[in-house]
């Protein structure tokens, strides 16, 4: 069998609802590697939010921050930081609206406020046991690859109309990802597949959420999880079972990889 590359989203996809890797998923990934395929991650998470998963599954190729920080075999091959001037404007607006912000680089994260229930609740759902400390100037003089804006649904609209340098993607009732405009997992994946020279017909992707849509549409061999949003299922070539019901193993069989 010719070598393929398979990109897995994490939350709701590679991870079950307890944020763990199912035994069937672990076995499926081991089988892919035994066949000579490349297993990679494509996530909105920061690199330090899934280091333990990379170690557990022995994965060293990944697209993080929804395409803004891309690593191939342990080496950074592409970065796309947030526009510094627009980030300053975002910071000023958030302070006026009493909205918390978290600034994230490739190694750490800091919040613009000392305490926030919305930060604690939303980041807590990731079960990463890491919380940002307080540093309101963390965004200055460093590359920030993603910010989190903490606001209720709909409250991001004024930011969207003013800050065209950014895309805002909601991932939690209290939080939206702030990303470089036009960035996506799909574009980050392209940085890897171009370097490896793997053709489109041997590229595969699994996802479930809004930040997976471009990836699921752009990768011709795409699989949406049974627990995924309807938009993800419409975008994908195949629909597998849920992340709690051996969805990865089943999806790899649908795609002819297992």
UniProtKB/TrEMBL annotation:
- Please name the GO terms that the record assigns under molecular function: hydrolase activity
| Keywords on record | Hydrolase
Question: Out of the domains of life, which is the source?
Answer: Bacteria
Protein name in UniProt: Cof-type HAD-IIB family hydrolase
Q: Which PROSITE patterns match?
A: COF_1 (PS01228)
Q: Which residues form a coiled coil?
A: none
Q: Which CDD domains match?
A: HAD_HPP
């Amino acid at each position: 069998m010719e070598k393929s590359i398979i990109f897995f989203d994490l939350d709701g996809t590679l991870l079950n609802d307890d944020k763990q890797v199912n035994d069937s998923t672990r076995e499926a990934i081991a089988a892919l590697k035994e066949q000579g395929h490349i297993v990679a991650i494509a996530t909105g998470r920061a690199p330090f939010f899934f280091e333990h998963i990379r170690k557990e599954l022995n994965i060293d190729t990944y697209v993080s921050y929804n395409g803004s920080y891309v690593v191939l075999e342990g080496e950074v091959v592409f970065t796309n930081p947030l526009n510094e001037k627009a980030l300053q404007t975002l910071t000023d607006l958030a302070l006026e609206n009493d909205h918390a912000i978290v600034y994230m680089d490739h190694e750490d994260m800091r919040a613009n406020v000392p305490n926030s229930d919305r930060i604690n609740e939303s980041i807590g759902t990731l079960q990463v046991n890491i919380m940002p400390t307080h540093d309101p100037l963390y965004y200055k003089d460093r590359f920030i690859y993603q910010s989190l804006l903490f606001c209720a649904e709909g409250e991001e609209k004024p930011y969207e109309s003013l800050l065209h340098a950014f895309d805002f993607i909601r991932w939690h009732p209290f939080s939206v990802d702030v990303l470089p405009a036009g960035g996506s997992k799909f574009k980050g994946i392209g940085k890897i597949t171009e370097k490896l020279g793997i053709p489109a017909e041997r590229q595969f992707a699994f996802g479930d959420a809004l930040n997976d849509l471009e990836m699921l549409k752009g990768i011709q061999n795409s699989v949406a999880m049974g627990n995924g949003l309807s938009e993800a299922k419409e975008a994908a070539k195949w629909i597998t079972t849920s992340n709690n019901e051996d969805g990865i193993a089943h999806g790899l069989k649908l795609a002819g990889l297992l």
